[in-house]
Amino acid sequence: MKRTLQTRHLSMIALGGSIGTGMMIASGSAISTAGPGGALVAYSMMGIMVYFLMTSLGEMATYIPLTGSFATYCTKFVDPALGFAMGWNYWLNWVITIAVDAVTSGVIIQFWWPQFPEWIFSGFVLLVIFLINYLSVRSYGETEYWLSIIKVVTIIVFLIVGFMIIFGIMGGQGPIGLKNFHYKKAPFVGGFPSILTVFLVAGMSFQGTELVGITAGESATPEKSVPKAIHSTFWRILLFYILSIFVMACILPYTDKNLLSSNVQDVAMSPFTIVFKRAGLAAAASVMNAVILTAVISSANSGLYASTRMLFSQAREGYAWRGFGYVNKRGIPIYALLGTMAVSLAIYLLHFVSANAYNYLIDASGLSGFIAWLGIAMAHYRFRRAFVAQGHQLSELKYHATMFPFGPIFAFIFCMIVIVGQNIPAFIHLDWDNILITYMAVPIFLILFCYYKFRYKTHLLSLQEADLSRSSRGEKYITADGKEIK
């Protein structure tokens, strides 16, 4: 593996990974559900939880920067069965996401060319992201860097335009102020249950920030790049999300039907599009459609990178075919890339054959991101305790997580609340079909965990058994000039 990713790459990879269609189209639904105040509270709380998770991941990634990230940390510090299940859970999540993004890109392109066959453009997107990941890790980093910049610039322009509308400088309606914050039932609509519902939307929006842990294994200076990426990314994301929702809430009342838009086909009704239209941008829908297409391609690109590296790590840990752990001269785990691409392509083709089977696969990955976050919290709690128990000094750590042990404990509890609260009405009405669809990721994860645990008789590692060595099985890393990193 070649460590050639720079700090700017890691920052934009983590930032771009969590700015997508969920923010640009579906975030308005948070205001509609819980009101402007409830949406701001939910996103703020979720942002704080993600901050704790990312600092936990940062502490481990700077001390032991490995491609397998939290899955490998679960193997080393908690239980090999947990690492096995975490790795496959995360891989499954991303291979399905790649297929979904490919389908989505085909839908988006029809905004301009309604008669153009979706599958041709979807296939083109899959080919492009494969070539990007096939060339080198640096080509992936550079591509993601520029794709993320497009999204970030769009949000900055949206905020500037939005505040100009709020203060009456643009839009031709005079100052708007905060009147929507006390309109009808605002600022809080539906009480705590509505805020809990928005927690789920916010959690989905923030997912992708953990990519910085995957990229740490190929970062040129992980001890510097990872902490900087985590801190800068957190504040930017929190600022972007909170301010964007604030602007939407000021301009559109929570009762506005446009806030219910949640599909890429609703780009003309996206809160972003409406704000730009009020400012006089006639081509707002077309511009936002182009930005959303960029976001979808960025998501697929990151998904292929993350799933390839996770499959590579699974092979190195002995959890997958050993061939997936092979790396070519360019530092690319080529067989893991081909295997991941083949599965994603098969899932993509499945939506032509059986729409129901395709939708079930999507449902199966619904909670995978939150399960991965649980793994980060558990691994870090065990890592820090084992680090001290084995006689190490905290001064040896180049980066310290915030407020240990409160941080990982809070994140773990919060994630559990979000997972359990995904579909409480289904439990109240004993709607078993709905329960199965919503929580499908949980039994899949438990099956993987139990399979490995009972087959190999693994156990919770004691603090003295935890492996604090700064490498994984058979992994080697070299710098851009060809020197091996021990």
TrEMBL record:
Pfam families on file: AA_permease
Intracellular or extracellular location(s): Membrane
Superkingdom to which the source organism belongs: Bacteria
Keywords for this protein: Amino-acid transport, Membrane, Transmembrane, Transmembrane helix, Transport
Amino acid permease/ SLC12A domain ranges (all copies): 9-461
Any one GO molecular function term: amino acid transmembrane transporter activity
Membrane topology category: Multi-pass membrane protein
GO cellular component: membrane
Transmembrane region(s): 12-31, 91-113, 119-137, 149-171, 191-213, 234-255, 275-300, 332-354, 360-381, 402-424, 436-454
Chief subcellular location: membrane
Protein known as: Amino acid permease
Organism: Limosilactobacillus allomucosae
